[in-house]
Amino acid sequence: MQRYPAMWQIAAGVVCLIGLSGPANADASSQAILNTYSDIALAKYEDALTTAKVLDGAIDKLIAKPTDAALDEARNAWIAARVPYQQTEVYRFGNAIVDDWEGRVNAWPLDEGLIDYVVAAYGTESDENTLYTANIVANLTISVNGKPVDVSAITPELLSSVLHEAGGIEANVASGYHAIEFLLWGQDTNGTAPGKGQRPYTDFDAADCTGGNCDRRSSYLAAASDLLVSDLEEMVSNWTAKGAARAALLDGDPNAGLSVILTGMGSLSYGELAGERMKLGLLLHDPEEEHDCFSDNTHASHLNDVIGIRNVYLGTYSRPDGSVVQGPSISEAINRVDPNVDAELRAKLDATLASMQALAKRAETVEAYDQMIAEGNLAGNKVVQAAIDALIDQTRSIERAVAVLSLANIDFESSDSLDNPNAVFQ
What is the pTM (predicted TM-score) of this model? Predict the structure, then answer.
C-alpha cells in the first residue's frame, strides 16, 4: 500500500474517562475491552487460517488433476478465504506487529509480470521496476539489482526471503492472497468492460499445457499457498493468550490500547479504504486500482473491511461456524461518558454498512466494481462515491469518540486522493 504523511491528528489530554467510578475501574474496564478486542482478533485470524487451509487443499487438487471444476473450486475457496481475512484489516493500523506482517499476505497492487506471462499490452519494461516482466515461472534465473538469482526451485522460502519486494520495490509482490489470485484467474484484460481474468485450467496441466511451463506455474501456486498458511499460523500465534500482539496491548497503558482500537477504525475508514482503495481509483477511473482486480471480488473485500470496523467497535464477531465472540466494547465505554456520541457513531457505522451493501449488490447484479468506477458511468460512480462519503462521515464520528475518551495524539492514515486530489494527477 502507498503511505502518505498522516494529516489527521487528534490531540487531547490523557485522562481516562471510561470507568464506572474512578481510575481503578477505568483500568479494569479498559482491560476488559482490550481482552474482547484481542479475542476477536484471535477468532478472525483462526478463521482466516482455516479458510486458507481449505484453499490450500483445493489448490493441491487442481495441481494433481487440472480440470475446469477443480479450478472453479480453488477460485471459490479463494473468495471464501477473503471474507474472514478482510475483516481483520482493522487490526493492521495501530498494531505494529500486524502492520509489519501485513505486506506479506495482502500487498497490492502487483506487477504481475514478475510472476508469469502477461499480454503484450502490459508492456515489456518499467522505469520504476527492472523486474516488471521477469517472469519467474518461465525462467530459472532472474537478475535482482544486477546480480543473478537462482529461481529454479520455487519454494515458500524463495518467495518470502528473496522474491517478495525484490529490489526493494513494493510492486514486486511475490506472495500472499493477490499473487495466488493472479495465478488462479490470470490478468483481467477487459479494462472497464465486463469480465474478469480467464486463465484456463490447462495452464496447470503438464500433459496438455497452455501458457508454457505448467509444472513451474503449479509449483509457484503451491508454494504461495503453503506460505500463506504458514504466515497466518504466525499471526494466530501472535493473538493467543501469550502471543506478542496481545501482550503488547494488555501489558501496556490501557489508554494506549484504546487508542489502537480507534486508530485502526479511523485509518482503515479514511486513508486506506475511502482514499487509497476507492477514491484514488474513482479519480483516475482506473481498473488497475481495484483491490481484487483479477477476480472482480473487490466489492466483497470492501464490504468485509466495513464489517470488520463495526465488529471492533461493537465488540462482537459472528464466526462462519455460527458461534459468536463478544464482550465489553469500546462502544460501551463511550456510551458511559457520552451516549450521544456512541449513538451517533453506531448510526454512522450502520449507514456505511448500508452504503457498502448497496455497492456490493450492484456489483453482484448490475456491473463489477471496475465498471462502476469507469469514466462516464455516472450511476456507478455515484454508488462508489456514496460509500466513500459514508466512510469519511463515520471517520468524523470516530474523531469525536477519541475526544470523548480524552485520548492523546492519534494519527489516522491519510490519502492524497482525499486531502490533496491535485497531487494524484501530477
Answer: 0.93
